[in-house]
Amino acid sequence: MIIRTIFVAIAVASVISGPAFAQTAQSAAPPPGSPAATITIPGNQLPPPPQEFGGKIERDARNSKPFWPARVVPPKGAPNVLLIITDDAGYGVPSTFGGVIPTPALDRIAQSGLRYTNFHSTALCSPTRAALITGRNHHSVGYGVIAEQATGYPGYDSIITKDKATIGRILTDNGYHTAWFGKNHNTPEYQASQAGPFDQWPTGMGFEYFYGFMGGDTNQWEPGNLVRNTTPIHPYVGKPGWNLMTAMADEAIDYVNRMNALAPDTPFFIKFAPGATHAPHHPTPEWVKKISEMHLFDQGWNKLRDTIFENQKKLGVIPQNAKLTPWPKDLIKEWDQLSADEKKLFVRQAEVFAAYAAYADNEIGRVIQSIDDLGKLDNTLIIYIEGDNGTSAEGQPNGTPNEVAMFNQINPPVEDQLKYFYDVWGTDRTYNHMSIGWAWAFDTPFSWTKQIVSHFGGTRQGMAVSWPAVIKDKGGIRTQFHHVIDVVPTILEAAHIKAPDMVDGIKQSPIEGVSMMYTFDEKNANAPSTHTTQYFEMFADRAIYNDGWIASTKVMRPPWVTVAKLPAPQDYPWELYDLHNDWTQAEDVAAKYPDKLKELQALFWQQAERYQVLPLDSSVATRMITPRPSLSAGRTSFAWTRPLSGTPNGDAPSLLNASYTFKADVDIPQGGAEGMLVTQGGRFGGYGFYVLKNKPVFTWNLVDLKRVRWEGPELTPGKHLIEFDFRYDGLGAGTMVFGNYSGIGQGGTGTLKVDGNIVSTEKMEHSLPFILQWDEAFDIGSDTGTPVDDNDYQTPFVFTGKLNKVTLDIDRPKLSPDDVKRLQDAARAAGDGPSDDAGKSASAEPQVGTVGLSLTDKIQLRIDKREGCRKQAEAQGLGMMDRIKFVQQCVQQ
Q1: pTM passes above 0.85
Q2: SS3 for 178?
Q3: Half-sphere exposure of 624 (CA within 13 A, CB side)
Q4: Which of 203, 180, 188, 202 is nearest to 648 (CA)?
Q5: pLDDT in tens, 675-686
Q6: Beta strand pairing call for 380-386 and 80-85
């Protein structure tokens, strides 16, 4: 028996250490095969191969020996990781990097660890976040732009392919507990419904738990796109004053304590990504009062910029010889040029923004403190990135009470904002954003803002890192160039976990970032950066960094302009900056170093081909209505026979720029009925078809600035067919391929019918051209989120009759041959010939670029464009090979 026991022990050790399952048990671990056994895997293959049974099986259990598979745990000493990333906050926002807004939680991390003054994002939300969780460049993982603007190219389709596993997946398979709280902007818009698929949701990308919102932003008071794991939830209903910022901090604190109670020895990884400070700016009244009483912004944005710049030099987060980039007088008024009304409104906007930033930092501080309270802070790696891009200038020159209005090219004047929205700014009655002057100031000392990658105002983020057990240079500053793709390799090195070669049988593409962990050692405080080259591209604005130099294209479209005629991307002029001597890009030296500029330009194209950046595309607003795969793609007729809520915009049928007919077959009970039949959007832009006090109503909410309403008489008890028919007056989205926007946003005539009889007819002068409120859903039989008219009802407004069937038929305009010829002639006369949409796919729904065009028309357009490209090449005096390459690239734009 003793011999048998020894033999089994030897056999078990052989199995565990053998090549078939090359894993090493942690020291002092329970015996292999015991219920408490743990194992650390090599990590090259995820999930690891099944562990071989190391016990003994006879016919009789009494003569057999059990053997439990070991529980996978990270390497000994692997830290907890708290990865924090806020939203739309530039370098000059937090007090930690010279700003006037108090951010004590970020200060705490910087004082106990390190501040990084040369850390970069991609200048836009989805792209930065995709790079953050994969360690690859944003185009490499399909996020050249945000998910809502995805197009059918590998670098832009919003799909993180299976050969690029996320940090969540890697750490989960290596034994971490993993969770994600807050913003998820990395699920394709057309996969965000309850029909899935769910493999591109956080839980499908390897995170064990998710509590947050789907999409770019949300109403913090009433988030219509909030989910737990993959299930929509509405915890705010019946809870006045509920705010998502506090709720997600509470959820994260609960998670930390739950994991500690259940598995105290297992490290956790948490991604904490609040909506702050992306619009809408929704802080609690207490924080608005606190910040307003500080009077931080009374002297205006020019003085604010000077103050931040002085603070930055005092803190040492910019070099003493750094230059403050000039104020863009040709684009933004100086503070002294503003009227008293403008100043009053704009100060209020900045105070609410600052309150939101301070409020978010306070809630982040609560999460950090909860880790400290459990005694786990010493071995917790905290990476706190302030902003996923520069401060947003998408609020237009006057700011806006409704961001949805801005994306539909509507900008309320200052007098209207003061009259109707000043007193409720930041409450649930606004979807607010601030004036562009504040955005520029909060990106001090740099020029430009969010969306712009060519200048650091769009890409430079303040970041602090602490890990008390490892980082001993408390309060140190690091100036090495690094990028958001460097976070994943840093976490992996800290945890002693390798990037996998294979995941689910799929060979993994290499991690493209480099670890920053060398900077944790004080001996390397001034070591050269290990990240020597980095391209940047967004909406054809672009730059290339290499060893202290950066070549940048001139900004051709301010971020607050979403529709513009621009030169071909290849024609953008370039600038050159020597960052060794010019930390803020204040002096263009392109004329002084032409050879250096050419070298960097060539390097950019190499990087662009390597990382799926091509084809360059400068369009912005038009990409929001580009047809994409979805549950409604290619369909013009829809039917629902029972209530259904929560279908997001990306999968819902779109009524924009089209004629359509809704029909609702209902039974009205004795005593009448009311409730929602069908709706999409809410308080800040959308439509609702409902019964109110037994009367049929159809309401179009034009971004909370105007409502057009059709109403009929009371319905008698019994069966009725209620119909709303809208006839659109415009030519539709097909005009945009010719650089002509006259086909969108036009009006039309709506007719409300009951049992075939017309009961109301109204003319709508204009319609929404681009987008409805994106954080709300398409609902049948009730209304989630906010009402389209607060004066009529409050959500959920469930229909109290019987809803037998709802149908929708959409009739999209088609360009006639005469329309095409007229648009072609107008485009050529303007010197802005239509581009050929290369996507001649066989999909059921044509791409916007080919709507209404016959094959002959497409060929003719391509010939015209090629001829124009050839003339451009000749004018530049290019040699034959360069001319051929230029024309090939030009035609694809």
Answers
A1: yes
A2: strand
A3: 19
A4: 188
A5: 999 999 999 999
A6: parallel
